[in-house]
Amino acid sequence: MDRLLQILAMMMLFIQPLALKAQTTIELSSREPLLQFFPVTNAGQTSAIKSIRFKVSGLTAPLQISAPEGFEIGKTNTSFSNSLSYTPTELKDGVFQTLFLRFRPLTSNKGYGGSLRFSTAGAVLERPDLSASSLPESATLDVVTWNISWFGSEYNNPVDDLLQRQHAKTVMDSLNADIYLLQEIVDTAGLGWLSRNLQNGPYEYLISPHASNASGMSSGNWRIGQKTAFLYRKGHFSNISSRGFTVNNNPTNYYNWSNGRYPFRMDADVSVDGVRKRICFITLHAKSEVGDDPTNYLRRKGAAELMHDSISNKDLNKHFLVAGDFNDDLDSTISKVAPISLTPYYPFMSDDFQFIPASYWNTQRGDNSYIGYDNVIDHVLLSSEMNHDYVPFSCIIRKDAASWVANYQSELTDHYPVMARFNLRQSTSNIITNLSTPVRIKEAIQVLQAPNTDPLIRFLSPIYGKIQLRLLGADGSLHTVKDLSGSSIGSTISIPIRQLPSGIYMLSVATPQGVQTYKILR
After folding, report:
1. CB-count burial class (<10 Å; 0-12, 13-18, 19+) for 339
2. What is the pLDDT of residues 286-303, one digit of tens each?
3. C-alpha span between 245 and 309 (Å, rounded)
4. Please, what is the end-to-end C-alpha distance for the chain in angstroms?
């Protein structure tokens, strides 16, 4: 018996160290936002300093923290660098530590973004996401989609319509967008008041002729119903036309669009920073998810399929922006009773050749646009042509709007505005077509075409790790090879192409996740 006890005791000596070995974990404070957004900062200047709190448990090796290009981090608010390291003795186990952040761009007219990366033996954390720009607002087309809950309704909350109107003005004055794609507009007079009283105007507005359960604008239901609308800065828009979109006599289509609340389309010549383009904007408000009824999902699915077909068959190769309250997410459906988990907007998500979901990176980080719920349901979709002008990392959920208005949710709306920026100069001479994207990433290619500079292909690294770029001619001839290792998300690699003769080229981007191929017109 004594011999057995001795054997057991010896076994415990070997087992205990294994049992006591803790797994390393890295966490952000639950109060930290999933996105850190910095206002426009000129090249060579420095933004205001922000801070986040993190903790590490079970640390056995140094902790490395790195920031994407243009961002700097510090252990104190006086000393900053692009990366830093903590030894295990510097960090108390499981105790929150403050990390300071700032934006310091070195290049003008550029969008910056990516994720902070925390890494050590056995643990990696890539968050929060960062977004910033050195592009002045005067050089970009700034677009906002926003559901202003029952704006001006006599019968629904918020109760005080005049206060809601004033709150909307406060938010819009701070956003200072060039065009707003709006949902749940009830009071047309209230929208007219906004157009006349917003700062940095004058603004003009267009109201959809369609609303739920309304056969037309003469219907009483149209007057009291939720409508979509555009509110735009007059100086940037001309030759405007508007109409309902996907409107037909099919009763199923009428039913799918919440009994007649069809999307609203506006085509206009848009002039920003000396560049003029014809752009189509579509604002939509899809059928909501109410109760335990699977038909809500099927209605959104049917509406999305028709909308995708309508754009694909009639409006290829145009600058298109589709935005609004999709009432669903783009990775999988929010519905808990749908027959499948597939997003109802799968036709757009699977068609990488024609459509790019600019707002998808908000979904990827686990963010939300509807207060009190876990998902992003307010989205921005771009045609591949419109994506050429998209400022990388600029499509963000403006949660800061809630800090500009007291009682934001109860007195204004339960949706955050979603904003995206576009630099119309980016694609004035070069056109890029995404030929294959086996793995969806936040952003891969940006064309830089600024006055008096050589045209460049600017590649924004989508991953940490090894990347190979290959630029080939249409005949397969190899012009450029760049092998990169240890790149970080958001870092840029520029390939000058002025020396190349005019023609079609292929850019191959190989990462551990797969190969993406882009067609480039020089």
Report:
1. exposed
2. 999 998 899 999 999 999
3. 12
4. 86
Specify the pTM.
Answer: 0.82
Two tokens at 374? 């876990």
Instruction: Write the CB contacts of 514 (distance below 8 Å, at least 6 apart in sequence).
Output: 438, 439
How far is residue 337's CA from residue 293's CA, in Å, rounded to a whole number?
7
| DSSP 8-state symbol, 173 | H
- Full set of structural domains in the chain with CATH: 25-133 (2.60.40.10), 137-422 (3.60.10.10), 431-521 (2.60.40.3080)
**DSSP assignment of 72-139, as one string?**
EEESSSS--BSEEEE-TTTS-TT--EEEEEEE--SSSS-EEEEEEEEEETTEEEEEEEEEEE-S-GGG
Residue 332 per-residue DSSP state? B
Query: What value does the mean pLDDT take over residues 353-367?
Result: 90
Query: Which residues lie closer than 8 Å to 270 by C-beta, 6 or more apart?
Result: 141, 236, 237, 276, 277, 278, 279, 424
Which residues lie across from 144 on neighbouring strands? Answer: 180, 419
Q: Is 272 helix (H, G, I), strand (E, B) or coil?
A: strand
Q: Which of 10-14, 221-225, 433-437 has the lowest mean pLDDT?
A: 433-437
- Contact between 373 and 329 (Cβ < 8 Å): no
pLDDT of residue 207: 97
β-strand pairing of 141-151 with 179-185: parallel
